[in-house]
Design goal:
This protein is an alpha+beta fold. It is built from 7 helices and 16 strands. The protein has 2 domains: 140 residues, no CATH class; 149 residues, no CATH class. It has a 5-stranded antiparallel beta sheet. Strand 14 and strand 15 form a beta hairpin. The radius of gyration is 29 Å and the shape is globular. The chain starts with a helix and ends with a strand.
Length: 363
């Protein structure tokens, strides 16, 4: 009897050690599965997000190539310009781009999402309120925004610029100055968010919400730079009365006041301190003073950095600040290849100077 029990015990011990050597206990298997599951929960969403971002980027690139080709063909055929309405332009565009449905602004959500998310904080925008080019930031076009659906499933909102220019002898004209457009690379599918499935062409803002193009060290987000259209003294006085923060009105071609109107108020323009931080970034320097002129020698401006904030081409430029001096002048900062200086009383550049650009603060 003793030998029988001894044999059983030895067999059990042998099996136990075999299990420990070549397998797992139930507790160990559960623990391993839990660890694998936790690791997957951390990595899989990241992988999916990267894949989806790549899909959106590829779809955007393909669409813009097709649109560019269509506009180039229209330019060559001298059918790019000369329209007074967005609808007449789209009718011609549809001959070169497969548009399956066009929707009036009164029923725009039949072609586009009724809610989208735009800007730095993904503000919710009711697209049924998008009626004219002004809701796309193009305040002087005065044309209707229409909705479109394309054969590839993309949807879009588009406004036409009646001042569109074409040169049928040039192959470089892309025609994007002729339109402002938002398009969705995933149709009606979520997330309907700017920078993800939603992309834009020549859209300054969507219903007052600006995209974040450049983030400064203080956390301020700035839009792409734009050349504002001027407004009259009467329009300036109207903005002043509405609480836009303007103190003076004088010119009948006030470009700075036009920038204030575009951005939605004086406080939506950067300060001189913030323009100095842009100088730090573009020239690779630090602690530029708000009223400081900096002379650096030749070719110190980083044009790749300038392109990142939306300034293309190796040329000089000036940016408006929010700091009003008097009825004829406002502080701005000038940037060229070798130095950055402020313009104010001594600069001789007033509010009627047309070549300055503006960066609107994005919230």
């Amino acid at each position: 009897m003793y030998k029988i029990f001894e044999k059983v015990i030895k067999t059990d011990l042998k099996n136990h050690y075999q299990i420990k050597l070549f397998g797992y206990t139930l507790t160990e298997a559960i623990l391993t599965m839990a660890i694998v599951g936790f690791a997957a929960s951390l990595t899989i969403p990241s992988i999916v997000e990267k894949y989806q971002t790549k899909v959106w980027a590829t779809a955007s690139e393909v669409f813009e190539q097709k649109l560019e080709q269509a506009l180039k063909v229209m330019n060559t055929q001298a059918t790019l310009a000369g329209y007074s309405t967005t609808e007449s332009f789209i009718q011609e565009l549809s001959k070169h781009l497969k548009i399956t449905k066009i929707c009036k602004s009164t029923n725009i959500i039949s072609c586009f999402e009724d809610r989208v998310y735009w800007g730095r904080n993904s503000a919710e925008v009711d697209t049924s309120n998008i009626k004219t080019s002004s809701e796309l930031g193009q305040i002087t076009w005065n044309t209707e925004v229409l909705g479109i659906q394309l054969a590839n499933g993309n949807t879009g909102l588009i406004a036409y610029n009646p001042d569109c220019y074409q040169d049928p002898y040039s192959n470089q004209i892309k025609g994007t100055n002729c339109i402002a457009m938002i398009y969705d690379t995933s149709g009606y599918k979520k997330p309907n968010t700017e920078g993800k499935d939603l992309r834009s062409i020549n859209v300054i803002a969507l219903d007052g919400h600006f995209m974040c193009n450049t983030e400064l060290a203080d956390g301020t987000c700035l839009s792409e730079p734009f050349s504002p259209d001027p407004i009259t003294k009467a329009e300036c006085e109207e903005l002043k009365a509405k609480g836009y923060g303007i103190r003076y009105c004088y010119y009948d071609s006030d470009y700075w006041a036009g920038a204030v109107k575009l951005c939605g108020g004086v406080d939506k323009l950067p300060s001189m301190v913030q323009l100095a931080r842009i100088a730090d970034m573009l020239y690779g320097i630090s602690n530029t003073g708000a009223r400081q002129n900096v002379y650096l020698g030749s070719n110190r401006l980083n044009y790749e950095k300038a392109a990142e904030i939306g300034i293309t081409g190796n040329s000089e430029f000036s940016l408006w600040s929010k700091e009003e001096i008097n009825s004829t002048d406002v502080y701005s900062r000038y940037y060229n290849s070798s130095n950055t200086i402020i313009n104010g009383y001594d600069g001789g550049y007033g509010r009627s100077f047309s070549s300055k650009k503006v960066l609107c603060i994005s919230e």
